[in-house]
Amino acid sequence: MRVVVDLTKCQGYAQCAFLAPDAFRMVGDEALMFDPAPPADQRLKVLRAAAACPVQAIQVDLADLPTPPPEQTVVAAKGDRLRREGRVVIVGASLAGLKAAEQLRAEGFTGSITMIGDEAEGPYDRPPLSKQVQTGWVHSADTALPRHCDIDADWRLGVAATALDLDRKRVRLADGQEVEFDRLLVATGVRARPWPVPEEAALDGVFTIRTRGDAAGLRERLMAGPKRVLVIGSGFTGSEMASVCCELGIPVTVAEAGTAPLVGALGGVIGRISAGVMREHGVDLRTHTKVNSLQGEDGKLRRAVLSDGTTIEVDVAVVALGGIRNVEWLESAGLAVGVWGLACDAGCRAFTAAGLVTDDVFVAGDVARQPQPMFGYQFLAMEHWGNAVTQAEVAAHNMISSESERWPHLEMPAFWSLQFGHNIKSVGVPPIADQIAITQGTVESRQFVAAYGYKGRVVGAVSWNQGKWLDFYQQLIEQAAPFPLPYGMTNPPADGSPMPAEFPERVFPAHDATVVVTGHDPSERRATLVRSSRRR
């Protein structure tokens, strides 16, 4: 039995914790933790909890339940040849890839599906790896994603895609084989950014956290009782790992090059609140501080030299410096691809380097860079769980639909984080904001909502242990409501005046040309991407 909870939907009503307390539990005021692989004797309770969830955020493995009658599952038996006999290849066998395959089958696609993944394991849920797994509530091997149907796929696991031939419609694999397709979905996601010095990164005790293997190795080391853990970076993963160390009673130092934790995602105002919470829990937080080097003895990590002039003794370091989008295999394919991901339109169709949309290549998940109509059509890459699900479903639908039947991906960006007993949730795109205002609750109580504004309109909101209010703010964002909010709110703060959001200077994708154009006549002109390694 497999369970996953869409925590962007969860609002902390705790019905599941009442009905199945061995599988679900509340942390703090409204944060939910869950067992992704509850024992078989809990099945009935878990199913009742899923049915009782007021926002239907709980997904349970349904692959072993009776198959519905054909008329309920085959919705396109009368469709065209692509739906009946097409070949769909999905590169990326994780959350987005699985959801796309399930959507294809749900819409009556009866052709072949090939799932290609560089990991030897099938799709699993990544958020628990830095939470439930590290605290010991669940094992990393128990994080497989629930299956809603048998997708009847040809699984090519443990072998990476190495190249794409658009003209021949083939994906080349690391083992030398090629897979032909009629439609291709790129869902390769991101990988953890490693420590930049290979010799130091190879020291025993230096970890990133992205895969099951990462999580299992780190959990084992934490259980061995390290004297001190160093967390490098204080984004969401770094902050969550600091929280885990505190929960386990392990001394932890956080080195953050910026002004505060979470400042890149939520800005300086919320960052200072997060910094205060960390220090209240005993974290040795060093802001404006970089790690100059990691030092070891006999191949094992022993100390870290910091830019503030200090050297600290550590035996575990968690490198939490963000991710690298897995696009290298596409660099010779002629697509609009770079360090920011693979660009696509609102229907998830990939762009070529010349800015043309393809009809055969689609993109979904963390690797996709897509224009957001609600935010001035800015190209944004959203590394969020809920975005991967909805984007994959839209991409799958559009792959096998006619032009007039295609959907736009208009999902509101949303994410969550559980740290130090606090549930932090966000909707919209706070990092594009220039102002912020506390609109409900109080910072002192650690129960509040903050709205973000950009050029006089609401573009985002973040809640701290007040997630039930975010649906309202989502509606404000969708309606382009004015900022500051022109009306009174329930439980207003003493001072709700707007203030600068204090985000770091934004890094734009290109300050220089990214393509070279060749040819003279319209029929001869071509655009070719310029690689950074070729620039001088």
UniProtKB/TrEMBL annotation:
Reductase C-terminal domain segment(s): 415-483
Domain of life: Bacteria
Domain FAD/NAD(P)-binding per the UniProt entry, residue ranges: 87-392
Top-level taxonomy: Bacteria, Bacillati, Actinomycetota, Actinomycetes, Micromonosporales
Keywords linked to the UniProt accession: FAD, Flavoprotein, Oxidoreductase
Transmembrane intervals: none
Full protein name: Ferredoxin reductase
GO terms, molecular function: oxidoreductase activity, acting on NAD(P)H
Pfam families, per the entry: Fer4_13, Pyr_redox_2, Reductase_C
GO cellular component entries: cytoplasm
Cofactor(s) listed in the protein's UniProt record: FAD
